[in-house]
Design brief:
heterodimer, A: mainly beta, 11 strands, globular, B: 108 residues, 6-stranded mixed sheet, 62% strand
Chain lengths: 112, 108
C-alpha cells in the first residue's frame, strides 16, 4: 500500500491568484494522478504525472491552467492558476499499483 | 470514450442488504474498482475485480461480468456508518474512469 500526504487540506483564495497543491508519497511510484471533484459530482481525471516527462492532460484540461511538476518518484505538485469561482472543487492526488489505487486526503479549494 | 452508470441514490434500513449496480462501456478494460467516500473525505478502496464472479470481503462483496459490462457492490448487515457515496470506477490502460457515485443512506 501507499500513504499519500496532501497539503493544504483546504484553502480560500482570491480570484485571479494561483494555488499550488503538494502530494508526498511514502514510497517510490511511477505514476501519479490528479483528480478534480466538483460539488456533488464524481472524480474527473485532470492529468497523469510521470517523473522525467511532461504530464499528460485529459480533454478539457490544459497545462497553462493546471501546471504539474513531478521532480522525483515520491512527490508531485498541481497548481491551479488564475483561479475563478468555477475552480472551487476538491482536488485529489492518487497513485496505484494496478490492483489498488490510493488517494491523498484532498484539498478543498474555495475561490471567492 | 468512457461511460460509467450507477444509480444516484439508494436508501435502506439498518441491518438490511443493499445492492449497487454499475454498468460500464470502456475501451481497454482491465478491471473494476469500488470506492467508499464519506462526505468531505477522500475515497477509500473497497474492492477490485478483474475476473468474472463474486469476491467477498466481510460485509462487502463485489461482482463482475466482463461480457455484460456489469458489476455490483453488495453491502450486507448495513450499519449507520455505511451511509456514504459509493463510486464504481473502470480501470482501463493505466487510469480510472469514475461513475457519478451512488449515495447510500442507512436509516435506523
Amino acid at each position: 500500500s501507499a500513504v499519500i500526504s496532501q497539503k493544504p487540506s483546504r484553502d480560500i483564495c482570491q480570484r485571479g491568484t494561483s494555488l499550488t497543491i503538494q502530494c508526498q508519497v511514502d514510497s517510490q511510484v511511477t505514476m501519479m494522478f490528479w483528480y478534480r471533484q466538483q460539488p456533488g459530482q464524481s472524480l474527473t481525471l485532470i492529468a497523469t504525472a510521470n517523473q522525467g516527462s511532461e504530464a499528460t492532460y485529459e480533454s478539457g484540461f490544459v497545462i497553462d491552467k493546471f501546471p504539474i511538476s513531478r521532480p522525483n518518484l515520491t512527490f508531485s505538485t498541481l497548481t491551479v492558476s488564475n483561479m475563478s469561482p468555477e475552480d472551487s472543487s476538491i482536488y485529489l492526488c492518487s497513485t496505484g499499483s494496478g490492483t489498488e489505487a490510493f488517494f491523498g486526503q484532498g484539498t478543498r479549494l474555495t475561490v471567492v | 470514450g468512457q461511460n460509467i452508470d450507477q444509480p444516484t441514490e439508494m436508501t435502506a434500513t439498518e441491518g438490511a442488504i443493499v445492492q449497487i449496480n454499475c454498468t460500464y462501456q470502456t475501451s481497454g478494460f482491465n478491471g473494476l474498482f469500488w470506492y467508499q467516500q464519506h462526505a468531505g473525505e477522500a475515497p477509500t478502496f473497497l474492492s477490485y475485480n478483474v475476473l468474472d464472479g463474486l469476491e467477498e470481503k466481510g460485509r462487502f462483496s463485489s461482482f463482475l461480468s466482463r461480457s455484460k459490462g456489469y458489476s455490483y457492490l453488495l453491502l450486507k448487515e448495513l450499519q449507520m456508518k455505511d451511509s456514504a457515496s459509493y463510486l464504481c470506477a473502470a480501470f482501463n490502460d493505466y487510469k480510472l474512469s469514475f461513475g457519478a457515485g451512488t449515495t447510500v443512506t442507512v436509516r435506523a
